[in-house]
Design goal:
The chain has 432 residues and is of the alpha+beta class. The chain folds into two domains: 280 residues, Zn peptidases (Aminopeptidase, 3-Layer(aba) Sandwich); 102 residues, Roll (Pdz3 Domain). Helices cover 34% and strands 21% of the residues. It contains 13 helices and 16 strands. An eight-stranded mixed beta sheet has the order 1-2-6-3-7-10-8-9, sandwiched between helices. Strands 11, 12, 13, 14, 15 and 16 form a six-stranded antiparallel beta sheet that branches. A two-stranded antiparallel ribbon has the order 4-5. The protein starts with a helix and ends with a strand. It binds zinc ion. Zinc ion binds next to loops.
Length: 432
């Protein structure tokens, strides 16, 4: 015991010596002992995830009242932490328009203490929206992305409770519309409320709740010269089994910032069976690993906001392929064409106003759709006997959900409209 303590004190002395020897870098050796660091807790993360991903929020669809409620939950916390609501947002909420309805981004920041550096901004962000209700089932999106949203809230609390204010300003953002194609973050970078050319880094957390065996994926590490070294330095504390990817573009909001030449990092714990499915629930989150990820982000962000020197941006366009995704769609062999269905078509096809159809844009050869004679230009109006939602992307996700539960040999129907006529096609599922 005593020996152990002695070793620790020597270690601390050593770390202090290192940090004193470098005037450029902030003294991060004590970061782990600060109340700020300790304020990041498993209990808090669990509370936030459980609420944001509860059935009350109905899957935080874009656009929806529940997504606005989620934004209010976040902005209430920003207010309690006495963060600044930037000009261009009202009570921390930046509203944008989607098909005539209002969708929120949440933005709050802590002003830096250094006279010059306070005009530079480090952004910590996550998307808060998800898929809503698919085929009558709430898709809660606990991992995707209540987990990252909770991370933003915990980091906002941590940075707010620092005794010594950070030198640079630190900005906390949660986006709407990510699941519809990164819409919230794209809107933000086109309509920034804090100058983008003074935004020195963006850290994005999307799906950080399903770490297995301490796995952690970090994307964007090629977008600044300094990232790799920083990541390895801080990972010493956590020993994550890291998978590092250089590219700044990913199927998440960091892409929008990278497109504006801002260094980015993307924290992610991988795809799983509940991805975009009703089983993505709060009780399946690995809160312990999530806590460590958020703590690691805190350490990295702490250095970013206090370091006198800035990151060196690098272009890094290597694209990121996320595996095990859309596998059932590949089996179906259908590529859809985005086309809204008119009221006249709905009336002619005898489907309700609240329903829709998916136009087939391409049939992949050798797959199921070709085998059963589906054709380019057909409109799918029912699948497995079920009517479909109005938005093509929601139809895609509905069919994904249905097919995900099919066993090999399962019979099902696809009903299409071809040249104005309804046609019922009987199929047998192959696979799984
Ligand atoms: Zn998603």
């Amino acid at each position: 015991m005593a020996l152990h303590r002695k070793l620790i004190s020597i270690f601390i002395l050593y770390v202090n010596l290192i940090s004193c020897s470098s005037a450029q870098n902030p003294d991060t050796s004590n970061t782990l002992n600060t109340n700020a660091y300790k304020s990041i807790t498993t209990a808090d993360l669990r509370t936030h995830v459980s609420y944001i991903a509860s059935d009350v929020m109905k899957g935080r669809y874009t656009p929806s009242k529940e997504l606005l409620d989620t934004a209010r939950y976040i902005s209430d916390r920003f207010k309690k932490l006495e963060m600044i609501s930037p000009k261009g947002a009202i009570d921390y909420i930046q509203l944008w328009d989607y098909k005539g309805e209002k969708v929120p981004n949440c933005i709050g920041y802590i002003q830096g203490s250094d006279e010059n550096l306070r005009n530079e901004y480090v952004v910590i962000g996550a998307h808060m929206d998800h898929l809503g209700i698919i085929m009558g089932e709430v898709v809660n999106g606990a991992d995707d992305n209540a987990s990252g949203t909770a991370g933003v809230l915990e980091l906002a609390e941590a940075f707010s409770s620092l005794k010594e204010k950070p030198k640079r300003s630190v900005v906390f953002m949660t986006f709407g519309g990510e699941e519809r194609g990164l819409l919230g973050s794209k809107y933000y970078v086109e309509n920034p409320v804090l100058p983008l050319n003074k935004t020195v880094a963006m850290i994005n957390m999307d799906m950080i709740g399903r770490s297995k065996d301490n796995y952690l994926f970090i994307g964007g590490v090629g977008t600044a010269l300094e990232w790799k070294q920083m990541i390895h330095k801080y990972n010493d504390t956590y020993n994550f089994k890291l998978e590092l990817h250089p590219g700044g573009t990913a199927p998440s909001d960091n892409s929008s910032f990278y497109a504006k030449s801002i260094p980015v990092l993307f924290f992610f714990t991988g795809i799983h069976d509940d991805y975009h499915m009703p089983g993505d629930d709060p009780d399946k989150i690995n809160y312990k690993a999530q806590t460590n990820i958020v703590k690691m982000v805190f350490e990295i962000a702490y250095e970013l906001v206090n370091n006198n020197t800035k990151l060196t941006f690098r272009e890094s366009n290597e694209s990121l392929e996320i595996q095990n995704h859309h596998i059932n769609w590949k089996r179906l062999g259908i590529k859809y064409k985005r086309e809204d269905i008119t009221t006249e078509q709905k009336t002619a096809w005898k489907i309700g106003k609240e329903n829709g159809a998916m136009k087939i844009g391409e049939i992949v050869s050798g797959k199921l759709a070709e085998k059963y004679g589906l054709k380019v230009g057909d409109y799918i109006i029912t699948f497995d006997g079920k009517l479909l939602p109005p938005d093509p992307l929601d139809i895609y996700r509905s069919i994904e959900l249905l097919v995900n539960r099919f066993e090999n040999g399962r019979t099902f129907t696809i009903e299409v409209v071809r040249s104005g006529e309804r046609k019922l096609i009987n199929c047998i599922w192959e696979g799984k």
